Amino acid sequence: MFASLSRTAIPRTSTRCFSASARSSAEVNAAVFLEDKAGELVPAAANAVTAAKKLGGKVTGILIGKDEASLEKAIAMSRKLGLDNLLVRHAAALEHALAEPTAPVLAELIKKNGFTHLAGPHSALGKNIFPRVAGLLDVQQISDVMSIQDADTFTRPVYAGNAISTVRSKDAIKLFTARASTWEPAQPTESECSVDVAAAENVGPGASTLAAWISEELVKSERPDLSSAPTVVSGGRGVKSKESFDSTIIPLADVLGAAIGASRAAVDSGYADNSLQVGQTGKVIAPALYIAVGISGAIQHLAGMKDSKTIVAINKDADAPIFQVADVGLVADLFEAVPELVKKIEAAKK
């Protein structure tokens, strides 16, 4: 049975904390930490640039790494993001962006250049580095910023997205991470900004005293990246096993050219890798199309996908909470509905 459902907004409250008058855009001198991976910018870096530009003043990008050669591609990409300037700092200790050596470099750049703001992606790396930078500068970090009202006032989600907190900071330097799903990525420009490349100063304690890089395991896939894909197909506990997850979710994702996601229940049950988890403790995404298969819709999962442009839910339980936020709902056995849907999509593409 097909059912067209109007989306019901999740109730939200707003918490406001106000203090001094807002800083004017003419006084803003913002910096953006441009996160890179294997020498290339991560998609969320462009979203953080957009957030920084919202402040209304000058915006400078900051790239860090082992040496200039390893950052060549990232530098080329960064120069075309509409930044006013680009600072590149390198040192052997910065090769893997460990927080201990990286945070002092960022803190030093902020103080030397008089930056009033430092923005960055709300990623695992951003959440690791920014609190340390805030501690070194004796200011409070603002996490997961969804919107900016002025140079001192930000909104961010609390209570798994059920409440939106509006915060005005009195700190002279504002540090914040930006939620990628609520900011459009900065688009490439024809003009290029100037670049200042130099050896990093004030590199923090090395591996011998606090932290050492051991290893990294990367899962490579030709499939679109979950964090930025326009279409996502996610499976939940309802798929019942890893074998069923692979035989049901993957074919649908393949025919749609979509990324694959999973609920925490599916990840905890071993159906999917934890890198695919969508939700409060996983990735927060907002694709153009999100298809939830066998997902009941716990509040923790909704926190990670409720901002999707169109939500389609397939579940045999008509009372599942996921239908409250779905634009289109299909009450049916997923093991019958999904294969049929795949066949119809394949036929339509011929």
From TrEMBL:
InterPro entries: DHS-like_NAD/FAD-binding_dom (IPR029035), ETF_a/b_N (IPR014730), ETF_a/FixB (IPR001308), ETF_alpha_N (IPR033947), ETF_asu_C (IPR014731), ETF_asu_C_CS (IPR018206), Rossmann-like_a/b/a_fold (IPR014729). One of its GO terms (molecular function) is flavin adenine dinucleotide binding. Its cofactor is FAD. Its main location: mitochondrion. GO terms for cellular component: mitochondrial matrix. One of its GO terms (biological process) is fatty acid beta-oxidation using acyl-CoA dehydrogenase. Residues 30-217 form the Electron transfer flavoprotein alpha/beta-subunit N-terminal domain. Keywords: Electron transport, FAD, Flavoprotein, Mitochondrion, Transit peptide, Transport. FAD binds at residues 237, 263-264, 277-281, 294-301, 315. CDD domains: ETF_alpha. It is found in: Mitochondrion matrix. Belongs to the ETF alpha-subunit/FixB family. Heterodimer of an alpha and a beta subunit. PANTHER family: ELECTRON TRANSFER FLAVOPROTEIN ALPHA (PTHR43153), ELECTRON TRANSFER FLAVOPROTEIN SUBUNIT ALPHA, MITOCHONDRIAL (PTHR43153:SF1). This is Probable electron transfer flavoprotein subunit alpha. It comes from Rhodotorula graminis (strain WP1).
